[in-house]
Amino acid sequence: MSIARLLLVAAAANAATIGFASYREIIAGADNSHAITYTELDRSSTLFLNIQIVAGEDNAAVIDDFRTLCENYGAQNVSVIPRVRYGSPDGSMALEPEDSSQVLTDVATWADVFAGVKGTIDIPVLQAGFLGAWAEWHSGPLCDDTETRRAVVEGLQSSGAKVAVRTPMAHKELFPGDRAVTIHNDCIFDGGPQGSDGGTFPEDDRQAWVDYTREVSKGNTYGGEPCSLGGGSSYDWSDFEHVCGPGGLKAYIEYFGISYLNPGNPPEFFELFNDPTYADCVEEIQDALLSYQ
């Protein structure tokens, strides 16, 4: 490892940067023993964690599983970026309940849980979650309810952690210009350098939303995961030379000040991540992520 890289890694550790974040999920009613048991992460010191709960239930078992996960991974200096989503008793995913008071009760419960693990594990950012498909604030019965969305974020802020909303449009509507709230993006680079990121940047006014995203989230714990399934997705992730080239993912990370990525999605990127031929490329992408908090 070069001296320059050693210095970068040391600086990143002191600045609590993130880099690659390894995906995990724990699901109410499931056996989560494997997910909550510490296993060494591959070029990562952070978990990208989805937590699935069932509306109207106390979800005590999955709360206990989360606390155990925090103990096991926190003891190894691994941090966690959680997002809570809804599911059905059979383990399948579900949308949020139509009753906003039920959602906000669940938000309050989890805000207390997140506050309670302070000192056990670091939470660099909470993804707002709770609403919509995959808890990504679309397609659910309350996803257009401004007051409920604001209350979800404010409820999670009571945990003491920074909170990220899914889109720049939601951010500007709810917390205009406020860097105390950041953004997360679950479809990074899906259309390449000029893409919409799965609708994150509406095409009819793309540059304005790109500019707003950079204003409120660059270097502000902004990140998520790449994808290839968003609306207008057109990027060829199997073209590793372009992904690793001068107009590829590293440049995009630097432009937006992205600080963390789940390398497990899309499958082609995960293949690149594990291909020793592209180890230098993956290291450069990691270094770019570690340049931003």
From TrEMBL:
Organism lineage string: Eukaryota, Fungi, Dikarya, Ascomycota, Pezizomycotina
Pfam families named in the record: DUF4874 (PF16173)
Keywords in alphabetical order: Signal
Superkingdom of origin: Eukaryota
Protein's recorded name: DUF4874 domain-containing protein
Residues annotated as domain DUF4874: 61-169
Signal peptide span: 1-15
